[in-house]
Amino acid sequence: MRRNLLVLTGIFLLAVLLAGCELMPIVSGINVTYDIDANVFGKHSYPKQLRKNAMFEGVFWFLETQRGRTVDDFLIRVDDGTLNGVEFEARNVAGTDFEGIYLQIPDVGTRDITITIKLR
């Protein structure tokens, strides 16, 4: 009876792991906070947590009334509590007009980060 219970438990755990679920997080992620000018950008739905040393890519879309702005109009910073912050790349997203800012962080590191995008 005890052996059957152990086999059943092992099969259940294997099924959970194969399904992509985690019972206990083995590797914790980093928290992401967004400080974005709500008068310029539309609502966003970006992750509040990322894996350590992962890459972040996202587009911050302008509100209809703010189209035409460029990356140069903004102060963009990715802060992890260190003096220099985190390296990132930001560029314009263009359609019929400049419609947003594409932000890429090649390596978010291992500390919690804050992404700030404000008008200069």
Low-confidence stretches: none
The share of residues in helices is 10-25%
> From N to C, what is the helix and strand string?
HEEEEEEE
Count of alpha/pi helices:
1
Shape: elongated
Structural class: alpha+beta
CA gyration radius, whole angstroms = 20 Å
Characterize the largest beta sheet: strand count, sense, and whether it forms a barrel. Answer: 4 strands, mixed
N-to-C span: 70 Å
Description:
The structure is a single chain. The protein has 120 residues and is α+β, with helices and mostly antiparallel strands. Helix content is 14%, strand content 35%. It contains 1 helix and 7 strands, in the order αβββββββ. The strands form 2 sheets. The protein has a 4-stranded mixed beta sheet with strand order 2-1-7-4, with no helix packed on it. A 3-stranded antiparallel beta sheet has the order 3-6-5, with no helix packed on it. The radius of gyration is 20 Å and the shape is elongated. The relative contact order is 0.23. The mean pLDDT is 86.
Quick recap:
The chain is an alpha+beta fold and 120 residues long. It has 1 helix and 7 strands.
Walk me through the topology.
Blueprint: H1 2-18, E1 30-36, E2 49-50, E3 56-61, E4 74-79, E5 89-94, E6 98-105, E7 113-119
Parallel strand pairs: 1-7
Antiparallel strand pairs: 1-2, 3-6, 4-7, 5-6
Keywords:
single chain, 120 residues, alpha+beta, four-stranded mixed β-sheet, 7 strands, 14% helix
